[in-house]
Write a structure and sequence with these properties.
Blueprint (H helix, E strand, L loop, with lengths): L6 E6 L11 E5 L2 E5 L13 E4 L6 E4 L11 E5 L2 E5 L2 E2 L7 E2 L3 E4 L6 E4 L11 E5 L2 E8 L10 E8 L5 E5 L11 E5 L2 E9 L5 E9 L5 E5 L11 E5 L2 E9 L4 E9 L6 E2 L13 E5 L2 E5 L10 E5 L7
Antiparallel strand pairs: 1-26, 2-3, 3-4, 4-5, 6-7, 7-10, 8-9, 10-11, 12-13, 13-14, 14-15, 16-17, 17-18, 18-19, 20-21, 21-22, 22-23, 24-25, 25-26
């Protein structure tokens, strides 16, 4: 008897929410959640919140959340609430800017402002994670379209309640960056890839880990997946996973999927079908599956895909 091969399944080619990328996303109370994001560079970003128990049937929980900086925010689940941190407002014309506001919600419809001045500067596309019963923010950039190198950060902050924040590290040894990913795996906090979009493009494929958020070890400075920004990462079946993203020179979306148990040795997952190459998609782990929703696949889309590995999958 042959072992079933892992494969991606298209759960729906068109969810009811408007196609988008750069959204906030969490798996919370046995549901997938998507909130805010980006439609174009010339209008205010959306403030809607949607949830789904299965990736196919979606409910609009609210069309008008109180946060307005909803492009490239950081999101997490912490203390049985969804958290929405930072983010970008508007585009290149009618005003623009980032925020350091921290919001939370127990139901997606009612949001409370925890703090507008957490200590860390306004920013987007930082790493966000929950580690050692604290909420963490790592790096990011203060200014999306108009920033310079000084906008990029490599500071590390944590909070026990979302209101009061402590700087754990003023300058981590990984280079200042945004559009990276932070996850928790094997008792450590991890930072993967990322870089800068403007004014100078830079992408990395390094992997770092820390047992306390202050002291960091470079696990590898060159993973086998190509240097990239705007990708996603999750922890699933006791492995780190990297999915999709974008790199420049030439401009290219990625549709590859990589996994690793130790962050040093990586394997590419090959499947007979997969979602189209994309960046700034939403990725989740729920019901023993990896889910991919939306993202910029030239054009934006509202697809939802799921990957379930066979029970005896060894990696």
């Amino acid at each position: 008897m042959t072992t079933p091969r892992p494969d991606w399944t298209c759960i729906t080619p068109a969810a009811p929410w408007q196609p988008r990328d750069s959204s906030g996303e969490v798996a919370f109370r046995d549901r997938l959640w998507i909130m805010g994001g980006w439609f174009d560079s010339f209008s205010a970003p959306p403030r809607d919140v949607w949830s789904s128990p299965d990736g196919a049937s979606w409910t609009c929980v609210t069309a008008d959340a109180p946060w307005k900086y909803s492009d490239l925010p950081m999101t997490a689940v912490f203390r049985d609430r969804m958290w929405f941190l930072g983010g970008w407002y508007n585009g290149r014309l009618a005003g623009h800017g980032s925020t350091s506001e921290v919001w939370s919600s127990a139901d997606g419809a009612h949001w409370q402002l925890a703090t507008a001045a957490p200590g860390w500067t306004p920013r987007i596309s930082a790493g966000a994670a929950v580690f050692r019963d604290r909420l963490w923010i790592l790096g990011g950039t203060e200014n999306y379209y108009f920033g310079d190198v000084s906008s990029l950060k490599n500071d590390v902050w944590s909070s026990a309640d979302g209101c009061t924040w402590t700087q754990e590290c003023a300058a981590a040894p990984w280079s200042p960056r945004a559009y990276h990913q932070a996850v928790v795996h094997d008792g450590s906090l991890w930072v993967l890839g990322g870089g800068s979009y403007v004014p100078d493009y830079e992408a990395r494929n390094d992997v770092w880990r820390s047992s306390d958020g202050a002291h960091w070890e470079c696990v590898t400075d060159a993973a086998p997946w190509s240097p990239r920004i705007w990708f996603s990462a999750v922890v699933y079946r006791d492995h780190l996973w990297v999915l999709g993203g974008w790199s420049n020179h030439p401009s290219q979306n990625w549709g590859d999927v990589w996994y690793s148990r130790d962050g040093r040795e990586w394997k590419e997952l090959h499947t007979s079908q997969c979602w189209k190459e994309r960046h700034e998609h939403s990725t989740y782990v729920l019901h023993d599956r990896i889910w991919v929703a939306g993202g910029h696949a030239q054009p934006l889309n509202s697809e939802v895909w799921a990957l379930h590995l066979p029970e005896d999958w060894k990696g």
